[in-house]
Amino acid sequence: MADAVTEFVLTPEQQDLRRAVRRFCAERLGEDTVRRLAESGTGHDPALWARLGGELGVLGLAVPEELGGAGGGLVDQAVVAEEFGAALVPGPVLGTVGLAVPALVALAGAGLDEDLLASLVEGARTAAFAVPDRGGRFDPALVTVTETGGALTGEVRHVVDGTADVLLVAARTGEEIGLFLTDGGERIPLSTLDRTRRQATVRFSATPARALAVGAGAEQAITAALRVGGALLAAEQVGGAQRMLDRTVAYAGTRLQFGRPIGSFQAVKHRCADMLVLVEHARSTAFHAAWALQDGTDDPDLAVAVAQATCSQAYQQVAQESVQLHGGIGFTWEHAAHLYLKRAVTDAALLGSAAEHRERIAQLVLDGASASGGVRVATG
Amino acid sequence: MADAVTEFVLTPEQQDLRRAVRRFCAERLGEDTVRRLAESGTGHDPALWARLGGELGVLGLAVPEELGGAGGGLVDQAVVAEEFGAALVPGPVLGTVGLAVPALVALAGAGLDEDLLASLVEGARTAAFAVPDRGGRFDPALVTVTETGGALTGEVRHVVDGTADVLLVAARTGEEIGLFLTDGGERIPLSTLDRTRRQATVRFSATPARALAVGAGAEQAITAALRVGGALLAAEQVGGAQRMLDRTVAYAGTRLQFGRPIGSFQAVKHRCADMLVLVEHARSTAFHAAWALQDGTDDPDLAVAVAQATCSQAYQQVAQESVQLHGGIGFTWEHAAHLYLKRAVTDAALLGSAAEHRERIAQLVLDGASASGGVRVATG
Amino acid sequence: MDDRARVEKAAHEVVEEHDPRSVPVREFLAAWFAAGLTWVHFPEGLGGLGVSRGLQARANAILQGAGGPNPFFLNPIGHGMAAATVLEHGSRELAQELLPPLATGEHIWCQLFSEPGAGSDLAGLATSAVLDGDEWVVNGQKVWTSFAHRARYALLLARTDPDQPKHKGLTYFVLDMHAPGVETRPLRQMTGQAEFNEVYLTDARIPDTHRLGAVGNGWRVAMTTLMNERSAIGGSSSVRGAGAIADAVELWARYPQRHTPVLRDKLAALWTRAEAQRLTDERARRSATSGSPGPEGSIAKLVSAELNQHVYEFCMELIGPEATLYGDYTQRDAERNEDYRGPVQQRFLRSRANTIEGGTSEVLRNILGERILGLPGDLRADAGKPWKEVPRG
Amino acid sequence: MDDRARVEKAAHEVVEEHDPRSVPVREFLAAWFAAGLTWVHFPEGLGGLGVSRGLQARANAILQGAGGPNPFFLNPIGHGMAAATVLEHGSRELAQELLPPLATGEHIWCQLFSEPGAGSDLAGLATSAVLDGDEWVVNGQKVWTSFAHRARYALLLARTDPDQPKHKGLTYFVLDMHAPGVETRPLRQMTGQAEFNEVYLTDARIPDTHRLGAVGNGWRVAMTTLMNERSAIGGSSSVRGAGAIADAVELWARYPQRHTPVLRDKLAALWTRAEAQRLTDERARRSATSGSPGPEGSIAKLVSAELNQHVYEFCMELIGPEATLYGDYTQRDAERNEDYRGPVQQRFLRSRANTIEGGTSEVLRNILGERILGLPGDLRADAGKPWKEVPRG
């Protein structure tokens, strides 16, 4: 204890950051705005996005200053992601901030397009990450897009924020995997369950693209991006779950049935207590992952897998309980609960399911376990 | 509906039978007696057993009259098993009534030892079933005892009631499996978790034995016995779970904390409601299995697997909840809850775990499933 | 001729004289009613033959065997709740007026019980009915009403005496949904659909002859209706593997590339639970001595609601990335007798209401604990107080 | 010299002058106490140096680095609960008398709170203390007492005014366990062991100087003790994968023939939950502004109790048929500072008490709901009533 920066203890600057983002979201991204954008064609307001990048400056907090970012750490960005998740901020939060920007940062010195990175951080342009994953980790065998002569051919499904201005695309080039940049390709928007987090199928047919990296450099950048994306997605999940818990507790404290607040019934109170535990666990694992990636203090694979396994389950469970404890009103279109439930279901399926992350955890902690000493078994 | 004998509807005779057994257990096999026997060397009182077989006549209800039994159906025996489970009757209930007797009945006409069967039904002798199973079903590959020249060699572990007078033993004889009868072998009692349901390791070393059946006949008898044993074990589990539910409800209705019965708190009341559902499900599946085996009205494998998967989980869950809802007193040696918990844990491990039975259910209902029509998936 | 033969004879005559495959449905059902086959245990002249309720299954079997419709699905509230309530608590004249068009589906019925402020605490409802001459004047707002936009009549529970404790100040009415002051608005759900309605009552008038039961006796009358409702919602199919679990098994077969041993075990566990509940329903049905729905309905409702949710959660996990897609949120007014359940993602969302509608799982666990197990009731904040003094909101 | 340097210097001096590897434990701990290192935040002369509690970790690190004992394990109730309570609520003379032998482990302490009729409802306890001159005469029965058979002193909560509402009529004492009228009997558990005791109090006498806090103020004094207890029970290890989950992982490695993908997923889920709780404990520790245990302790206790149970349920499933065996039910008096946990079957049985002892999970969920989330309290049957008029049993 008592290090200058202690894991889990937010600095005063980070607390200010949190308050600023929360205020911005409350003023500019209230539920009405979120609903309006959710029902719009693109699901996204470029002007608002530019304000998040410019005025507020919270889209590239972990990007080094020399690359046009704020030069902070991933924990800063996680603080922002938590608030974004709480407010259900629509737009390319995951595609651009969660995946594309970290990939570009990882490519620093190796083909990095600094102008692009700066414009993404400013919110002037958007990007998505057209790289298939298996359980949130990169598997070259899944790459079906091919590159020949500076052009891409193939299809990637379920690209989050896939209608963004530019795409980072994993493609086979000869025997290797490369990471390519293109603003082309056919973008076929999908009809998503969560209209605040859009996806598209992306089709390339001799689409011109520029190589950012090939071989080990490309794979390292992809792996880094998927890890950061997993940690930031977990922070978003924490924010959504906390917001649903808060709203449920507020409702249970004021809604009267049988002449008393429903929160005075143990059936309701104890479920809220269980939601509290879920949210606390989610927050601990999400921020531990951000700290571990930022400071290199833990196995990044394990930290992210624990966060994703925990947060995906917690958010879904909390959102479902929230609907239940609101009763009929929580099932209506007018109430916000379903917006969070749909986000929770969506986030749980992105960058690896909880089951897939548990499998990774099992590989890391069980497969090498030894049976030295310890617990005995009575053998009759 | 409206058949002469409807599944799930007990006849007046079966209801009388239930009352008679319940009365006998209350008078002769109360908790003090059960505890005394549990702490005794053999865990079993031969005189009491003989009264169950003779005076009460409830050890061979499904045995045809011409073989010395009552000529009833398996449902009659399940009614008795439920009461035995409720009273934690010690002695060879599973080994003799659940497994050995059904095996001998299945052998009718093929080497059956009628005198033996009659003496088992009368409670004059006891038997156990030294046949390894995998998930409650017979797997010839597990048989390691071998027979040559009328003598057995090998070991069987975890034989329930393995210190019984005689053993039915599965053994390899040449290329085939045979079912053998012996009163020999070394019987090594195990120190069991549940002292009312004993086990032994049985070792044969050129132990004389008589062949009851060899080949298909032996395997059919073993399969029949394991199915009947599974159904009767499920009925015992129902009895134990119901007894624990009843005691818990009685306690919750009278124990006062905070000036009111603890059962008036939803935290307690709702757990009792969940226990009720578990017990009701267990009863439905256990008696369906008995009816299905008795009348051939359902796939016997499926009916027994559903009963075992359901009852093993239900009994353990109910017993654990019962300890919890009794609070500290339920954790003491003096209170009966632990006797039932230990029985529940034991029964869940015998004749296949719930997980193994679920695997069997999956084989039967999922592996052949077809995707015709039905539910669509929104594909964006 | 015994009752069974009498029912069979009457049923065979109707289907012979009015081939349900060719005669218009209402005409056929009018003949079915006239023959006393709609509810065989009802009195003669009111759609019945005055015989045991158990014989209804025999009549229905003949009806279905001849290709006839299921009258219940044409008018679920009418058949499932209204008919028995009107018969038991209305005058014979009222029953003669209301039952024939109910039986034929000419008059669809709905139920006006729940209110925004009275969900689990239904008896706390606030809609008022005040006597004015020989008419009652009704004001209030009802919600979660199926079929309201198509219904001709409603079962209405309203408060007639706010000075009484809440259960004692209620009265039960039949409301003409075409009366002035009755306004129906669709209520959109998270699925995008509007399966239910809100109903606003503004000085709507009901003749006193359309009161069911005595003034102040409405709660007792409503209990019959609710028992029937829970039984109807909870009653699982008697066919093994049918219902929600069938969706999961079909999806399992369609997504072999998504199979894992863990999902396989999960689905087997769900299937086993569905089967255990099916057998429990079957056991309750067979061992029931009376024909009226009892507390077993509460077990069925509790289990099937939670099971439905777990089944569709499983389905969403099974289909993986496709769970993040959704066809169409365009608002549509869904009706129970078409396939309103949609693709599996929609079924998942719809299942979230299962543990709320028709009695929350929390209320049902209280019922199981108190009415079946005999545990003591919750402490009550509103016990014995005049309704108007109990805090609401 | 700042406080940290002062603590470090004192600690190094003690371990240099009294090598904990060779000096008898009590002698060493007496020197440790004299140097003010037992509880550094306590006043000088009472085992402390009057510095920040956070520096205790530094002192302990030096102690353990030199191979010294963990004083807590030698006297868990004494260190975990009694010391702070005596310091805060006793006179300085009393603290000077009681703390040195407590610190060295010469006097083991126990806690006499729970009664057969007062479990979750601890404040409803019935043991009476009546003033007779300058002594209190105590009668009653206590239960679930660890270490009672070895203890010299007990923290006792007794009722001094039955006419007050239950929380207001309690007073807190230090009881000499060697006094006449104090009888200790082992209480056998389902494991066969007797880890706890019943204590019967028959006209046992306590000098008024051994009262902690004012007459009638016992509940407030007890709250400090209980917060410390919950924190001590619930506090999980800060080492990843330690505790109960380590047993499961070791068994997993020892039973490869029993591996299935379903069990693998289950164990991974348990491990993940244990890790999430460990991180949550860590987060609470690091962001705590005060050094005293807060409501986070209730989360830790709730989660670790249920997790322990699930871990040992998993172990029993993993070992299959061997779960049906048990070494030895012979009654033994177990003590917390030896390995009383035994083989895994015994640990499974022992874990069933985790959700009862030190606050049931039901009570803890109420605490989380009310004290952390701010939800309204349960309706109370005993609010404001004199204790003697509240039904008990």
Give structural notes.
The complex is a heterotetramer, with 2 copies of chain A (380 residues) and 2 copies of chain C (393 residues). Chain A is of the alpha+beta class and 380 residues long. Chain A has helices spanning 12-28, 31-38, 46-53, 74-87, 93-106, 114-122, 216-254, 266-295, 300-326, 337-349, 354-365, and strands at residues 127-130, 133-134, 137-138, 146-148, 151-160, 166-173, 176-182, 186-189, 199-208, 210-214, 256-257, 260-261. In chain A, the strands form 4 sheets. A 4-stranded mixed beta sheet of chain A has the order 1-6-7-10, covered by helices on one side. A 4-stranded antiparallel beta sheet of chain A has the order 4-5-9-8, with no helix packed on it. In chain A, a hairpin with a 2-residue loop joins strand 6 (166-173) and strand 7 (176-182). In chain A, helix 7 (216-254) packs antiparallel against helix 8 (266-295), helix 8 runs antiparallel to helix 9 (300-326) and helix 9 (300-326) runs antiparallel to helix 10 (337-349). The termini of chain A are far apart. Chain C is α+β, with helices and mostly antiparallel strands and 393 residues long. Chain C folds into 3 domains: 7-69, no CATH class; 109-222, Butyryl-CoA Dehydrogenase, subunit A, domain 2; 235-359, Butyryl-CoA Dehydrogenase, subunit A, domain 3 (Up-down Bundle). Helix content of chain C is 42%, strand content 14%. Chain C has 12 helices and 8 strands. Residues 232-236 of chain C have low confidence and may be disordered. The chains are: A alpha+beta (380), C alpha+beta (393). Chains in contact: A-B, A-C, A-D, B-C, B-D, C-D. At the A-D interface, helix 7, strand 12, helix 8, helix 9 and helix 11 of A face helix 8, helix 9, helix 10, helix 11 and helix 12 of D.
